[in-house]
Amino acid sequence: MPQLASDLTQQVNQRLNQVGPSGIREVDQKFSSIPEIIKLTLGEPDMNVPEHVKAAAIKSIQDNDSHYSPQKGTMYLREGIHHYLMESQGLDYDPKTEIIATVGATEAICASLFTILNPGDKVVIPTPAFALYFPLVTIAGATTVQVDTSDSDFVLTPERLEKVLDEEGDSVKAVLLNYPCNPTGVEYPKSMIEGLAKVIADHHLFVIADEIYSELTYGVEHYSIANVIPERTILVNGLSKSHAMTGYRMGYLAGPAELIANATKMHAFMVTSTSDSSQAAAAEALHNGLQDPVAMRKIYQKRRDFVQKSMDEMGLSMATPSGAFYAFVKIPASYGQDDVKFAYDLAEQGKVGGVPGSAFGAGGEGYIRFSYAASDDDIAEAMKRMKAFVASKA
């Protein structure tokens, strides 16, 4: 087995040395070795891809659709993205110049950040937030400004954003919003989005809007900030959550043509283009499967209600999720703010896996995230085990 030459050990990209691996994946991998554990760690839908979507992927393979596609994605897929955004949000993006099909929403976020950031720039991120954002900003040579929202019901208010921007000065380049939010499940109301949009416009900023969970809301309508400031918005979305297509790796970004032209360069340098069969499946989902998420949404809402009831019975508070499929739960007082110890004790002794809230940045400390994108049986057994574990620590 080769070892790296000693004179090369310090020659790698030093920014990579500043970041660690995904805290979510690291915990999930460690917990996987615990016998009989029920893991509620990953945002991985337990449902299957709709049959008509699978059929489109199969047909693509059988038709020998196996060559390089256009770098922005097939026109049929980009027309499907346009169709979906018009039907669901009233957003009008030109499929020729304002949309890129990406390898999941992850690549869309990466391409967006690398398109707009220069060394020394700052990105405001309301936290707790999806852990991927922080290392990507660092690798781009920029700095994150983490805004702890745990004292404001896990939302970034316009007033708070204004205060942060006044403190940070002109080096702030962008605000990164994820809503419904991973890990809290909190959705932003239309009035607050409009208020944030005004602040962002007044300070001449970009906004990267990660709306991957927009189809999974409960009792509220998702309202995209692109409705208010489309000229400043880089819209990120995808099929992983809405159609249980995580393994297909299909996402997209949309924005003004001038920005998308540069983002296309970054996208092309990283991946060239997305796979043909995945694009065929995504196009089918977006053209003909806009009702597919409805049944999934009802199932997730039922699971949310069950988990929330279970936490109430345990005397544990949690953010009320109005979207996504996560429960962000305050750990028992006996653990103080040590969410890592609680998560590991719960996994090793209670046989239930969750992700420590501190993995999601400022404001996550003292919490634990559970994904209820798992089977009803697993969730029921996990809550039973957790009740016994919490009671034993009282």
UniProtKB/TrEMBL annotation:
Listed GO MF terms: pyridoxal phosphate binding; transaminase activity
Location of the Aminotransferase class I/classII large domain: 36-385
SUPFAM superfamilies: PLP-dependent transferases
Keyword field: Aminotransferase, Pyridoxal phosphate, Transferase
Enzyme Commission number(s) of this protein: 2.6.1.-
Name the UniProt record assigns to this protein: Aminotransferase
Biological source species: Secundilactobacillus silagei JCM 19001
Gene3D superfamilies recorded: Aspartate Aminotransferase, domain 1, Type I PLP-dependent aspartate aminotransferase-like (Major domain)
Cofactor requirements of the protein: pyridoxal 5'-phosphate
